[in-house]
Amino acid sequence: MKLEEVGKLSIGATLARIKAKPNEKAYPRRLFTIQELNKVTVDPNLQVEGQEVLVSDRYIREVPLAKVGMVLIGLTAPRAFVVTDAYEGYVIPINFVYLECHEGVCPEYVAWYFNEHPDIQRRLAVERQGSSLQALSMQKIRELPIELPGVATQEKIAMVYRLRHQRKKLWIEKQRLEEKLMNEWMIRTLKEEK
Asked: How far apart are the first and last CA of the chain?
C-alpha cells in the first residue's frame, strides 16, 4: 500500500501567497517550522523562537492549519510528527505535507513507520541522493510504501514508540541536569579553594 492510501495527503501553504499586504486586514498565526519539527522529533531541549505569519483576510479560510492527530512530514527534513494540542492551529507552510488519516489508521503508527522503518529509511536515502536541494517532493511522499497491520497492532507499536520517545526526552533531560550539577560542583569547588 502507498502512503497516499492511508489518508488525505496535502501540501502546506505558500507563505508569499497568504501573507497580508500593507493596509490589508490580517490575522497573526503561529507558523510550524523545521526548528519546531526538530524540537519534537530530535531534541526536546532545542530552543526555538516562535515565528508568526500575518495571514491575509482573503486567504484565512484556505490556510492549512495543524489539527490534533494530523501527521506533519517535513520535505526538507524528512521526519514525521503527530500534531498535539501544543501545535494545534499552527500554519503549515509549503515545506511540509500533512496527512489526515482515514478511520482505522493510527497516526502515531504512520509517524513511527515513516521515521523508523528500515525500508522507508533506505527509500528516503535513495530519493535524496544526488540532489543538491535534498528535499523530497509531494509525489515521492505519496508513493512511499507502508505496511498497514490491524488497528490493535498499529496501536501497540504506537504506544511503544510514544514510550520510547518519552524515555529519550527524559534521558536527554537527565544528561542536561547531570552536566549542570557537575559544572556547579566544579565552580563551587573552585570558589572554596580561594
From this structure: 69
Distance (Å, whole) CA 71 – CA 80: 6
The answer to whether the CB of 3 falls within 8 A of the CB of 9 is yes
Question: Tell me, what's the pLDDT at 130?
Answer: 60
Q: Which residues contact 166 (CB under 8 A, 6 or more apart)?
A: none
Query: Residue 4, SS3?
Result: helix
Model confidence over 33-74: pLDDT tens digits?
A: 988 888 888 877 778 888 888 888 888 888 999 999 999 999
Burial class (CB in 10 A: 0-12, 13-18, 19+), 54: middle
pLDDT of residue 132: 55
3 state SS of 57: coil
pLDDT score recorded for residue 192: 84
Cell of 21: 499586504
Go through 122-135 and write b for each residue having 16 or more CB atoms within 10 A of its CB, e for each that does not.
eebeebeeeeeeee
> Looking at the predicted structure, is the pLDDT value of residue 97 above 70?
yes
67's CB contacts (< 8 A; 6+ apart) are 83, 88, 100
- Whether the model clears a pTM of 0.70, i.e. scores above it, the answer is yes
Q: What pLDDT sits at residue 49?
A: 85
Cell of residue 157, nine digits: 507499536
